[in-house]
Automatic annotation (TrEMBL), chain A:
Binds 1 thiamine pyrophosphate per subunit. Binds 1 Mg(2+) ion per subunit. This is Acetolactate synthase. Residues 194-329 form the Thiamine pyrophosphate enzyme central domain. Belongs to the TPP enzyme family. Residues 392-540 form the Thiamine pyrophosphate enzyme TPP-binding domain. Pfam families: TPP_enzyme_C, TPP_enzyme_M, TPP_enzyme_N. Its EC number is 2.2.1.6. The lineage of its organism: Bacteria, Pseudomonadati, Bacteroidota, Cytophagia, Cytophagales. InterPro entries: Acetolactate_synth_lsu, AHAS_TPP, DHS-like_NAD/FAD-binding_dom, THDP-binding, Thiamin_PyroP_enz_cen_dom, Thiamin_PyroP_enz_TPP-bd_dom, TPP-bd_CS, TPP_enz. It is an enzyme of class 2 (transferase). CDD domains: TPP_AHAS (cd02015), TPP_PYR_POX_like (cd07035). The keyword Cell division does not apply.
Automatic annotation (TrEMBL), chain B:
It comes from Xanthocytophaga flava. Dimer of large and small chains. GO terms for biological process: isoleucine biosynthetic process; L-valine biosynthetic process. It comes from the Bacteria. It catalyses: 2 pyruvate + H(+) = (2S)-2-acetolactate + CO2. Pathway: Amino-acid biosynthesis; L-valine biosynthesis; L-valine from pyruvate: step 1/4; Amino-acid biosynthesis; L-isoleucine biosynthesis; L-isoleucine from 2-oxobutanoate: step 1/4. InterPro entries: Acetalactate_synth_ssu, ACT-like_dom_sf, ACT_dom, AHAS_ACT. GO terms for molecular function: acetolactate synthase activity; acetolactate synthase regulator activity. Belongs to the acetolactate synthase small subunit family. Its EC number is 2.2.1.6. This is acetolactate synthase. GO terms for cellular component: cytosol.
Length: 578, 84
């Protein structure tokens, strides 16, 4: 007997069963059966204005909920437009499912209209991918995709769906289960390896806990805190580790690394043990792995065996889910006598506080004198830090990381591994849909915002009460900063002359807009904007054009080479990545 | 210095597996000299791939772990390491 449902309808039904609430998508010919199947589904379709926006929305949704974000696009250019978003999710271990339409199977490989070999093209930016050639496989593969995206170290999974496969009657079994004989979930952490962590911790006098995204992904914030308080160790976090340990806690050193606090970085130079909890020691953190804290024992907890020894060879490690490892580690460690160490750390905090003063550099006639740090700091005070923050990429991202302290898990969303400009605003849309009752604020640069600002339509249409704070320095500021320091101020390709009037732009989309140009307006205008709840609003903050992020450790250099104020002579271009 | 390594991969014969393996090796500077696949005697779910490669021995452990991380790879063994 012929099934009443076609492949697309079965796929959508399985998504419903799997608890999918939203699909972020953009339609097209090859995806017609899928969009048709959504028409009567309980899943809400969020029609975006660009496929990249859809991926970052799904990403934002996934980062706050822990559930995979789902994207649906058409073949060819629709599919290729999702690549940046998948790479972004892959680099930051975010679960995501991307469904792409495809030309019919008989035309595969014949350069058919809007045929793109998205399966081949995306292998290196996804955790796994599929091209379905038989309708009967839809049930099994969809379930496999969700399983892979969410288990172990999460990541994006793509399913390419030829149009004849989605339109044909489904004659398989709806309950087909996964068939992944080679896929192994991380085993229970090895007790001996946990004991070896404990042995080194128990001998330490100057430990530091280093919290990465893995701690958040495993929901280990309570265990991190329990460990820090038990052994009385200071805690530092990566950009994506914000929220894994409260940054307002007395033991917190805030963010480390290239633009981290001086005291976190200096404390690393003096510690005798670093325990990485789901941090992969990447080049923003270690500067130069050969010179990274030779005096300290390095301990590593990671769910991904391929991370062990990839950058730093640890003195001890445990492979497994961070929460589980910490739960088993806690009974094996005892309170340490770190009183002197904590005093020293406090001294570092006093000596090298994270602070900004009124700008004392060059401000051309008629230009803004407001500092972005000040804007973000006041935003932090007015919200009491109680908001989900998304950021774009650049100077504003680093200032937000420094001055908007994060206390709660899953409230800080930023593209770390990929550094994808255009991420911040659509990610906020996904986050706001997932958390309708929370204050969601996108802190974006004038450059990055213009990469995905077409989603103003999407935010306005759904009346999402999110805030977009545009930190407008009229430059690709982070790149300009490097040119100032290392290239003798030759601002090649970084001047954003020709920026639109961001307030008028917002209004054109029916989005409420506020402008801040002076310190005197800052508090009141921000408060007004925060109180506005009838839909999205944009806050255009015109800030000092040529401001710099400090402290800064030039790429590839060690913590000793940290710079804390504008150099007066040109520095040598660093050899490390970027 | 480059070293010749022979790997044995036990894997599920699913779409794309050869490309995925090649991508892991290529990205880390390992050249494939020979590749041979055959059904795996001890378990009908799997196939076996014998790979001879040339590459930097310092990257061997990372390459092995990245191969093992592929969803359709069940096990990886380095059978032989020859300095050339
Ligand atoms: C898609 C993309 N293109 C280019 C870059 C390189 N890049 C990193 S930061 C930056 C400047 C961003 O400028 P803006 O959004 O205005 O933020 P600002 O640094 O001024 O705060 C650029 C171009 C990137 N990270 N992503
Ligand atoms: Mg800018």
């Amino acid at each position: 007997m012929e099934s009443a449902k076609n492949g697309a309808q079965v796929l959508i039904e399985i998504l419903e069963q799997l608890g999918v609430e939203y699909i972020f998508g953009y339609s097209g010919g090859a995806a017609l059966p899928l969009f048709d199947a959504l028409y009567h589904s309980s899943i809400k379709l969020i029609l975006t204005r660009h496929e990249q926006g859809a991926t970052h929305m799904a990403d934002g949704y996934a980062r706050v909920t822990g559930k995979p974000g789902v994207v649906l696009v058409t073949s060819g250019p629709g599919a290729t437009n999702t690549i940046t978003g998948m790479m972004t999710a892959q680099m930051d271990s975010v679960p995501m499912i991307v469904l792409t339409g495809q030309t019919i199977t008989s035309l595969l490989g014949l350069d058919a209209f809007q045929e793109a070999d998205i399966f081949g093209m995306t292998m290196s930016v996804v955790k796994h991918n599929y091209l379905i050639k038989n309708t009967a496989d839809i049930s099994r593969i969809t379930r496999e995709a969700f399983h892979i995206a969410t288990s172990g170290r999460p990541g994006p999974v793509l399913i390419d769906l030829p149009k004849d496969v989605t339109s044909a009657p489904f004659n398989g079994s709806l309950t087909d289960q996964i068939d992944l004989p080679a896929f192994q979930l991380p085993a229970r952490p090895n007790p001996e390896s946990i004991q070896s962590l404990a042995d080194l911790i128990n001998q330490s006098h100057k430990p530091i806990l280093l919290v990465g995204h893995g701690a958040l992904l495993s929901g280990a914030a309570p265990e991190v805190r329990a460990l820090a308080e038990l052994i009385q160790a200071p805690v530092t976090n990566t950009l994506l580790g914000k929220g894994g340990f409260p940054e307002t806690h007395p033991l917190s050193l805030g963010m480390l690394g290239m633009y981290g606090t001086v005291y976190a970085n200096k404390a690393l130079l003096e510690c005798d043990l670093i325990l990485s909890i789901g941090c992969r020691w990447d080049d923003r953190i270690n500067g130069n792995p050969k010179k990274f804290c030779p005096q300290a024992k390095k301990l590593h907890i990671d769910i991904d065996p391929a991370e062990i020894g990839k950058i730093v060879v640890p003195d001890a490690y445990a492979i497994g889910d961070a929460k589980q490892v910490l739960q088993e580690l806690l009974p094996l460690v005892h309170p340490l006598d770190t009183e002197k160490w904590l005093e020293r750390v406090q001294e570092l905090k006093r000596l090298y506080p994270l602070q900004y003063r009124p700008f004392n550099g060059n401000i051309p006639e008629g230009s803004a004198s407001l500092r972005a740090q000040h804007v973000i700091d006041v935003l932090y005070q007015l919200t009491n830090g109680n908001a989900i923050i998304t950021t774009d990429v650049g100077q504003h991202q680093m200032w937000a990381a420094q001055y908007f302290k994060t206390d709660q898990p899953d409230t800080w969303l930023s593209s770390g591994g990929a550094g994808t400009m255009g991420f911040g605003f659509p990610a906020a849309i996904g986050a706001q849909l997932a958390r309708p009752d929370q204050q969601v604020i996108a802190i974006v640069g004038d450059g990055g915002f213009q990469m995905t600002l077409c989603e103003l339509s999407t935010a306005a249409l759904h009346k999402l009460p999110l805030k977009i704070l545009v930190i407008d320095n009229k430059y690709l500021g982070m790149v300009r900063q490097w040119q100032e320091f290392f290239l003798d101020g030759r601002y090649s390709g970084t001047d954003l002359e020709g920026n639109p009037d961001f307030c008028m732009l917002a209004q054109a989309y029916g989005v409420k807009a506020f402008r801040i140009t002076k310190e005197e307006e800052l508090e009141q205008t921000l408060a007004e904007a925060l109180a506005y709840q009838s839909g999205p609003c944009l806050i255009h903050a015109e800030v000092v054009k040529e401001d710099n992020v400090f402290p800064m450790i030039p790429a590839g250099q060690s913590i000793h080479e940290m710079i804390t104020e504008s150099p007066t002579v040109p520095l040598q271009m660093p050899e490390g990545s970027t | 210095m480059e070293t010749q390594h022979t790997f044995s991969l036990i894997y599920a014969r699913k779409p794309g597996i050869l490309i995925r393996v090649a991508l892991v090796l290529e990205r880390r500077g390992y050249t494939i000299e020979s590749m041979n696949t055959s059904p795996y005697d001890s378990n009908p779910d799997f196939w076996e791939m014998m790979l001879t490669t040339e590459g930097d021995p310092a990257k061997l452990e990372q390459v092995t772990r990245q191969l093992a991380k592929l969803i359709d790879v069940f096990a990886v063994q380095v059978l032989r390491e020859v300095y050339c």
